[in-house]
User: Which sequence fits this backbone?
C-alpha cells in the first residue's frame, strides 16, 4: 500500500503506519527521527537558497540517514534505507545541535 499527496494537515497516523517515508528536507525529517521510522529525504534545492540541502547535510553530521539533492537518485536512496535500521538519535543531543545551528545562522557544512 502506498499513498502520496501534496498536503495534509496531519500525517502522524500515516507516518506511524509506514515502513518507509519519502519526504523533503523539512520538519517531517525531525518527526521521523523522533518516532524512529525509515525515511529518505530529497531536498527541494529550488527553495530559499537551497536551505533544505544545508539542513540535511548538517543533520547528517549527527545521525545517519539516506538523503540526496536529486530525485533521480531516489531508487538508490530507497535501497540504502531498506537495508538499514531506522535512524535513531538521542533527542537532547539533536535539540542542542539544532539550537546551536539556529544561533550560528551558518547552514554550510563543516
Assistant:
Amino acid at each position: 500500500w502506498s499513498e502520496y499527496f501534496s498536503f495534509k494537515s496531519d500525517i502522524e497516523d500515516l507516518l506511524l503506519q509506514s515502513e518507509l517515508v519519502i519526504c523533503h528536507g523539512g520538519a517531517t525529517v525531525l518527526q521521523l527521527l523522533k518516532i524512529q521510522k525509515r525515511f529518505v529525504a530529497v531536498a527541494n534545492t529550488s527553495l530559499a537558497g537551497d536551505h533544505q540541502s544545508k539542513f540535511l547535510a548538517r543533520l547528517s553530521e549527527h545521525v545517519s540517514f539516506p538523503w540526496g539533492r536529486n530525485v533521480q537518485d531516489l531508487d538508490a536512496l530507497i535501497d540504502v534505507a531498506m537495508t538499514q535500521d531506522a535512524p535513531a538519535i538521542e533527542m537532547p543531543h539533536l535539540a542542542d545541535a539544532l539550537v546551536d545551528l539556529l544561533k550560528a545562522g551558518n547552514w554550510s557544512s563543516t
The longest strand covers residues 39-42. The chain has a mean pLDDT of 83. The two ends are 40 Å apart (CA to CA).
